[in-house]
Specification:
This protein is an alpha+beta fold. The chain is about 45% helix and about 25% strand. Helix 2 crosses helix 3.
């Protein structure tokens, strides 16, 4: 499980796994608008993380970010953590 602590949104954390095919699994948002974020999670389930990141990056709500934008940033942080492990 990868956990990302959000910034500037009503949700506080994003938790997910990435499978061996680079697809998102078990996405959960902690806090935020429950119905909307359940919908985002269902739409993203099983999708490629690169596609999700590109699609959701830059979506704005308040504070110049949004929960979908924060998911994009969480995926970037996940990718960076993999690079750091390889070093």
């Amino acid at each position: 499980m990868f956990t990302y602590f959000t910034s500037g949104t009503c949700s506080r954390q994003i938790i997910f796994e990435v499978d061996e095919d680079n697809n998102l699994r078990g996405l959960k948002f902690i806090g935020g608008c429950s119905g909307n974020l359940q919908g985002v999670a269902r739409l993203c389930e099983g999708k490629n993380i690169d596609e999700i990141q590109a699609l959701l990056s830059g979506v704005k709500c308040k504070n110049n970010t949004s929960c979908p934008d924060q998911l994009s940033r969480a995926i970037a942080a996940y990718k960076k953590s993999l690079e750091d492990v390889k070093k």
